[in-house]
Amino acid sequence: MPPAEPRAGDSTRRSPTVLLIAALVLLAARVATGLYEERHPPSLPDLVRWRPIDAAVAEARQTRKPLLYDFTADWCAPCQTMKRDLFADREAAARIERMFVPVRVLDRRQEEGRNPAEVDSLQRRFHIESFPTLVVVPAAGGDSTVLVGYQGRQAALQQLAEAQVRSMMPLRFRPRAGSAPPR
Amino acid sequence: MSGIVVEGLSKTYRRPLAVEGVRALVDVSLTIAPGEAFGIIGPNGAGKTTFLGCLLGFLRPDSGRITIDGHAPDDLAVRRVTGYLPERLVLDRWMSGRGFLAYHHALAKLPAAGRATDVDAALESVGLGGEAGARGIRRYSRGMLQRLGLAQAMLGRPRYLFLDEPASGVDPAGVVLFRRLLTDLKHRDVTVILNSHQLDQVERVCDRVAFVRGGKVEAIETVAAGASHARMLRVRAAGGAIGTRERLESLATSVGASLHDVDPPQARFTVADDASAARLIQALIAAGVPVAEATPEESRLERLFLDTPPGASS
Amino acid sequence: MNATLIAALWRQRLTSPIRLVLLGSLMGMPLLAVVFMHGAGLSALGDSQGAVLVLGAGMIGQDVSSGVLQLLFARPVRRPDYVVSRWLGVAIAASAVALVQLGLALALMAARDSLPGAQDVFLYAAGRVIESFGLAAVLALFSSLIPGFGDLALYFLFTLSASVVHWVGQVKQWPWLDRAGSEILASLQPKLDLAQLVHASPMPWFPIVSYASTVTLCLALAIVAVNRKELSYASG
After folding, report:
1. CB count in 10 Å sphere of residue A50
2. B71 with A3: Cβ contact below 8 A
3. How many CA atoms lie within 13 A of B212 on its CB side?
4. Is residue A98 packed enough to be buried (19+ CB in 10 Å), middle (13-18) or exposed (0-12)?
5. How far is the C-alpha of C233 from the C-alpha of C236, rounded, in Å?
6. Which of A1, A90, B222, C128 has the most CB atoms around its CB within 10 Å?
């Protein structure tokens, strides 16, 4: 006598159909939103109040805060990551505002073929070769600190804090750091 | 359809890169009635544990079908009425014995109200009451682990009990205890599937026994568990004076046994049970036969085990 | 979900001295930073990766290789429930650890009168919880595929490979490779930067959908893997 078909019951190995469908739908949505937002990136509000290049030097002298130059370009992916992590982050942006006089130096060669003169001259002065590069310039003059590339929020904030402390020291106690020549 | 029905079960373990897998089960078919105690014996590597693994839904057979009370083996309805004692017992070592049973009591979805009472009774039943139950499992001896494993398997009075080498590593007192517990099960209408090397244990507990070799069921014997059954008694006389066939025959019949054959200085008798064997030996000595040695021959299972030529199935 | 399984996972973790010591030092270190680093904000507390890895390592694989699953699956326990319970157990425990750490940090900051704003605290706490649930799902998948603590090895191997891909993409300036690397890295550590989501306009859906997709996919695949798993001595 052949055994009866097992009754369709309540298997302990029921396959996760609903979850699988949800996972597939979400995967499709992920690709779709990814492609869409690549073309129409949602604007992240830049919470840092970037100063115009010429006004910044005067402000730095007056407030005795070091200058922070952000050498960046719109096409550079790590720059966007940094922007998201640091400049669009309330806490990080507030700290940057507290410590520095921030200046954005935007490279436009890719888009417009050439840069404004003051951008070119700053790039030459700090030997900028890649983006992003952050440069901390002490208000009282002396060695600048150059941070090339972006190694993550934590590391960047740490390096910026150290550069700020260094730039506030009287000139003769200042350890040499960074690669920029003195003014 | 109640009970366990196995039809055409085959299972091959595939090894990566190997052309041919290991055939662990080949076309096994059998039926186990509800309330029956069913033994599985066979040499190492015969496929006994694989068979149990399939019955428990742990392994996916390549072909064939198993139903338990009409359900697939991995059905929740089956799981609710199943107890299992694995051969290589691994327990959550960081628990206490009592904590472990309470954990399984909860996993088995048994009512929480009776948990403490049930757990204490279970510990008591395997001789782990009191301090032993409170002790951490990592400090249990092999025998204690096995006792705790059996208590775990019998929690909630399962209707199907799968026991893989239950008495392995158990001290002599434990063996007696296990035997008693298993015999008790017979009066509780529990279907027991017992996988054991200990033939006397299987013989004592089981109604039927499947002999497995090379992944095939070679024979299924009815052993009428609990009942004493006929076996052979071999008697050797000192100095060759065993006596004539006629004399031995009449002595045997006088105590309800029978002569099987004579081969001086030995004779073999068929006796119904131990008591009958004792009466026969007494009668022989009383009649002046110089009995030097009287040994029971192998049980039927032992004969089955020994008589099957190795590799007969492959 | 099975409360018995979740409670058993927690009790097991609490009796493991190695895990407790690792967890204590991982969580205590950032607190020291809060004590000694002037102006250290909530970000000094770091993320939930350490807690999830310490609490979650071997969350399924350890049960497979120890043989405990044999007894467990002989019980009326659905395998998907088991997987989900392991995931929830690890995720809830890691979240609790993060919240306790946050509470201690806030107490320290309050003592110095430099408490962050309520909204910042809330967003940070929610972010840590979200991260715990995300990473625990990834680890559940790895743990369902490989016995013992192989899930940790697999996790670090994947992270390393994805970092290399990401790095090569950056050096060679191949945006697609760069993107692929960072997508894999993001999937290996699914989290949401809530503070950013709150401030961005329009709300970016990609990070949210990515997170949900990673978690559901990992759990679904882990369940399929555990459903397909054969338990025996012979097949390992």
Report:
1. 16
2. no
3. 29
4. exposed
5. 5
6. C128
Contacts 24+ apart (CB under 8 A), C116-120: C116/A91, C116/C41, C116/C42, C120/A90, C120/A91, C120/C42, C120/C195
- Where b means 16+ CB within 10 Å and e means fewer, B234-244 reads ebbbeeeebbe
In this complex, the residue of B6, B70, B77 whose CB is nearest that of residue A10 is: B77
Chain C residue with minimum CA distance to B155: C75
pLDDT of residue B45: 81
Q: Name the one residue in this structure whose structure tokens are 């099960």.
A: B185
Amino acid, single-letter form, for residue B267: A
Give C193's contacts in chain A (Cβ within 8 Å): 84, 89
State ipTM.
0.89
| DSSP state string for chain B | --SEEEEEEEEEE--TT-SS-EEEEEEEEEEE-TT-EEEEE-STTSSHHHHHHHHTTSS--SEEEEEETTB-TTBHHHHHTEEEE-SS----TTSBHHHHHHHHHHHTT--GGGHHHHHHHHHHHTT--THHHHSBGGG--HHHHHHHHHHHHHTT--SEEEEESTTTT--HHHHHHHHHHHHHHGGGT-EEEEE-S-HHHHHHH-SEEEEEETTEEEEEEE--TTS---EEEEEEEGGG----HHHHHHHHHHTT-EEEEEETTEEEEEESSHHHHHHHHHHHHHTT--EEEEEEPP-HHHHHHHHSPTTTT-
Instruction: Tell me how far CA of residue B256 lies from CA of A8, B270, C68, in angstroms.
Output: 56, 9, 54
pLDDT of residue B301: 67
* Cβ-defined contact of B108 to C15 (cutoff 8 Å): no
Amino acid present at A121? S
Q: What is the mean pLDDT of residues A121-143?
A: 87
Give A8→chain B minimum CA distance, Å.
Answer: 7
- Chain C residues within an 8 Å CB radius of B162: 74
Q: What would the two tokens of residue B106 be? A: 């909860």
**Range B259-269 burial, b when 16+ CB lie within 10 A, else e:** beebeebebeb
Neighbours of chain A (3+ CB pairs under 8 A): B, C
Q: For A91, which of C43, C210, C223 is closest by C-beta distance?
A: C43
Of A15, A88, A89, the CB nearest to C227: A15
**Among C4, C76, A139, CA closest to B112:** C4
Contacts of B308 (CB under 8 A, 6+ apart): B211, B213, B218, B219
Q: Of C15, C16, C231, which has the smallest distance from its Cβ to B58's Cβ?
A: C231
CA distances from B178 to A30, B202, B243, C174 (A): 59, 12, 44, 70
| Contact check, Cβ <8 Å, B1/A6 | no
DSSP type of residue C43:
G
Q: Which of A65-74, A107-116, A174-183 has the lowest mean pLDDT?
A: A174-183
Segments of chain B scoring below 50 in pLDDT = 225-228, 309-314
What Rg do the C-alpha atoms of chain A give, in angstroms?
A: 25
Residues of chain C with pLDDT under 70: 38-40, 199-201, 233-236
CB-based contact C70 B24, cutoff 8 Å: no
B58 to chain C, any CB pair closer than 8 A? The answer is: yes
Chain B closest CA to C136's CA: distance in Å?
A: 22
The order of strands in the sheet holding B37-41 is B82-85, B160-164, B191-195, B37-41, B208-213, B216-222
| CB distance B168 to B87 below 8 Å | yes
Within 8 A by CB and 6+ apart from C228, the residues are none
Q: For residue B130, which amino acid is it?
A: G
Q: How far apart are CA A153 and CA A157, in angstroms?
A: 6
Residues of C in contact with B106 (CB under 8 A): 4
Q: Are the CB atoms for B31 and B11 separated by under 8 Å? A: no
